[in-house]
Amino acid sequence: MPKSKELLSALDGAGYDFFAGVPCSLLKGVIRELDADPKWGYASATREDSAVGMAVGAWMAGRKPALFLQNSGLGTCMNALVSLDTIYEIPALLVSSWRGEGGKDAPEHLVMGEIMRDFYDMLGLPWRVLRPDHVAEDVAAITQTIAERSVPGALIVSKGILDASS
């Protein structure tokens, strides 16, 4: 099974039922799956902070949100994450690409690639790097952590894991 489908299956199994985000080439496989099947009800946002707002509304309506975003969008959505999700204890899952990982990417991604994990730590948000051979386990672990702490948390995705062909 392609990793993108495996991830969606794990998210579905963990109860996630609202999906929104901003496209990223590192997440293209899973975004393509979300767009192709109306059962997911994927809402494409123009900005990351808009996706966070959608997730908050979905959670208030009784849904369990998962957001897809490029790590460079963390700066764009930091205020929404802190002033909405964190303060109001909304346990949304952020599926975040890891652009700039290991100093390999376009120059504009290198800084966030280097500091992303520290960025999540600074905000007090739990994170976990998705391991290709442990997708369901990683989804379950981060889901449990964010539910226990009632905060958003991130599942960080390295390049190549959720490509269209994977």
Give a structural overview.
With 166 residues, the protein is an alpha/beta fold. The chain has a single domain (3-157), classed as Thiamin diphosphate (ThDP)-binding fold, Pyr/PP domains (Rossmann fold), CATH 3.40.50.970. Helices cover 46% and strands 15% of the residues. It contains 6 helices and 6 strands. Strands 2-1-3-4-6-5 form a 6-stranded parallel sheet, sandwiched between helices. α1 (3-13) crosses α2 (28-36) and α3 runs parallel beside α4.
Largest sheet properties = 6 strands, parallel
Secondary-structure element string: HEHEHEHEHEHE
Query: Based on helices, strands and strand pairing, what is the structural class?
Result: alpha/beta
Strand numbers in spatial order across the main sheet = 2-1-3-4-6-5
**Low-confidence residue ranges:** none
Tally of contiguous helical segments: 6
CATH superfamily descriptor:
Thiamin diphosphate (ThDP)-binding fold, Pyr/PP domains
Principal-axes geometry comes out as globular
Tell me the name of the CATH class: Alpha Beta
Task: Indicate how many domains the architecture comprises.
Answer: 1
